[in-house]
Design brief:
This protein is of the alpha/beta class. The chain is 20% helix and 29% strand. The strands form 2 sheets. Strands 4-3-7-1-2-6-5 form a 7-stranded antiparallel sheet. The structure holds flavin-adenine dinucleotide. Flavin-adenine dinucleotide (FAD) binds next to strand 4, strand 6, helix 2 and strand 12.
Length: 300
């Protein structure tokens, strides 16, 4: 019998890793790929698909991330008690790819959306240089709860919506699908040059939505309009994977469930960020029990 994620105590799924920047590469108008290495990556076990992890980024005046504790039982309290100006910022990202090179070097790619210097993670990525070290809580086993893409066995087609923050996850999912799987996808990006090449054995029909407006309601409506005007794949049991800005995700889910009769239990939707709210604010809401099932960090 193969062990599944639920057979393994959750605390064993994840541990701290030291990520060292090896190189960076611009892969689109808004995307910077940062390739990390480091000895601890020998024990890193990405489950692929939309595998996420938590990064701890140093304050603006520090080069490397330092945490007072990386012990599973004490790190959180120790991190929370750090003075604000010293506390590393925690942010969620996707493992775009993990590989071992021919030279035996373990590498992990993360594709960062650069959305300005006033947000800590975007600023850090924009200034990332070789040799900088950050900390991450990531998977120690491949079957872990931060792989959210879990289509039921009976799934016969796939519906996908991703904005730019979830495009790395969508691209990684597409690479792993079975040959011929019917997929209808809508990918929303800020710029034409963010329409990256996608590689998949699946039967993919993708619609790119290059964002025109940047205000919440217009943005969600435009996406839903685009989806409403499309024919869905003929399958009787589709699985929908939706990830991106929380308001848009909610609107797309509502459309699929209420107007297209997609079974709500077959919709996996995750708010990767929310217009006007930093990840601290989303976490604070989650701690206060206000966040619903789209809580972006609930499973990390
Ligand atoms: C499971 C998961 C996986 C994710 N994977 C990725 C990934 O692979 N790549 C990636 O780039 N992001 C990814 N994200 C999203 C990323 O965590 C958020 O965008 C995060 O808010 C970025 O942190 P920040 O410090 O730059 O901005 P914050 O300090 O968190 O936010 C500051 C302000 O910027 C706004 N904001 C946040 N993100 C964006 C954006 N992309 N564009 C415009 N405004 C924004 C916020 O609404 C807020 O007003 C993922 C999120 C989750 C939950």
């Amino acid at each position: 019998m193969t062990a599944t994620a639920s057979d393994i105590p959750a605390a064993l799924h994840f541990r701290f890793f030291t990520f060292e920047v090896l190189r960076t590469r611009r892969i689109g108008h808004s995307f910077l790929r940062v390739t990390f290495g480091g000895e601890s990556l020998a024990d890193f076990r990405s489950g692929g698909f939309d595998q996420s992890l938590s990064l701890f980024l140093p304050p603006a005046d520090r080069e490397h991330t330092e945490l007072p504790s990386t012990d599973a039982d004490t790190w959180f309290g120790a991190w929370r008690e750090m003075p604000d100006e010293e506390r590393p910022v925690m942010r969620s990202y996707t493992v775009r790819e993990q590989r071992r090179t021919d030279a035996g070097v373990d590498e992990v790619d993360i594709d960062f959306v650069l959305h300005g210097d006033s947000s800590p993670a975007s600023r850090w990525a924009g200034g990332a240089v070789t040799g900088r070290r950050i900390m991450a809580i990531g998977p120690a086993v491949a079957q872990n709860k931060s792989v959210r893409f879990q289509p039921p066995a009976a799934t016969d087609s796939l519906l996908m919506y991703a904005d730019e923050t979830a495009l790395p996850a969508a691209a990684a999912i597409l690479e792993r699908l079975e040959a011929g799987t019917p997929v209808k996808a809508w990918f929303e990006v800020p710029h034409e040059d963010d329409r990256i090449d996608l590689h998949t054995p699946a039967d993919l029909d993708v619609t790119w939505i290059v964002r025109a407006a940047d205000t919440g309601r217009e943005r969600a409506e435009r996406v839903v309009e685009e989806i409403r005007s499309a024919d869905l794949p003929a399958g009787a049991t589709p699985y929908a994977w939706l990830a991106g800005e929380a308001g848009t995700i909610r609107a797309v889910r509502r459309h699929l469930v209420q107007e297209r009769s997609v079974d709500r239990r077959a919709v996996r939707f995750t708010g990767y960020w929310r217009l006007g709210a930093s990840e601290e604010q989303l976490l604070a809401e989650a701690y206060a029990g206000q966040a619903a099932s789209e809580d972006p960090t609930a499973e990390l």
